Amino acid sequence: MANHIRNGLRSDLENNGYCLVKNQLPEPLIAWLKSQAAAILPTVDAAHRERNRSQGSLVQLADYPEFAKIIGAPEVRAAMAGLAFPNPRFSSGYLISKPAHSPSLFWHQDWWAWDDAISYTPEIAQVFAMIYLTNTTEENGCLRVIPGSHRRAHPLHASLQAHDESLSRVVDPQNLLYQNHRDAVAVAVQTGDIVFGDARLLHSTFPNNSDQDRSLLTLWYHPDFANLPAEIRATLRKIYDRTTGDTDPAGDDAMTLDEWPATAHSLVSDLLIPDTKGVKARAWNRVPQWPSVGD
Ligand SMILES: O=C(O)CCC(=O)C(=O)O
Question: Which domains are assigned to the chain?
């Protein structure tokens, strides 16, 4: 597969904070992912579902080495090469399932290093790659985004309580963070597409009003890991180690990618986050402080 840089998609990612890479994954790979999801999702317990009612589920992929096949897939690598990611690394990923007739995902952004100056520059420190296992529409809970919100303040920022526990549990369904917004753009996909998005982008989903589950994998990559500030690299290592920022915290049998069997490990070894022993981690701050001028 030739690795041509796709300038239109790269500028979508830079300017709008997201881009849609169409028809990138072959049907057998999607069918295989669906079969994995169908085996795992029934094992998700009721307490997890309650805790993550707005997301649906957040199953840490580190516990399932079989997902090396998608994290290191040549098609995902080709998509990242097309977006001119010089040195991508992978820190974590989740299997997210939005059951039939379930609520919307609340508006939020996923970046956590807002104390670092890099957060207010065009540099893209972290992206999601969302791989949906069904076609999505507004009816079954597709993604929605506020284009450009990764680089400038938006009124929704003022009401954010990112990944606040009561938002995940949908304690108050009337909260405006579950509602549609006039600046929102729906991102409907076909299976085989990949949605890439800057972690700073405001996003949410429509409710799933259909009779079918709507699942996806979210994979977190870092396009130019080697050139990130050392403190951010140190925090990424902690995320990778599951000692910070893990929304599906480690149980007794929880794994990190370092513990994966050799066959799985070999598919992703060049993408893993190296040990940053001794480097102080960047403090966790989920709240942007936009400069008043010169953004
Ligand atoms: O469910 C989706 O479509 C998106 C999930 C997501 O963005 C999240 O859980 O942060």
Answer: 7-271 (2.60.120.620)
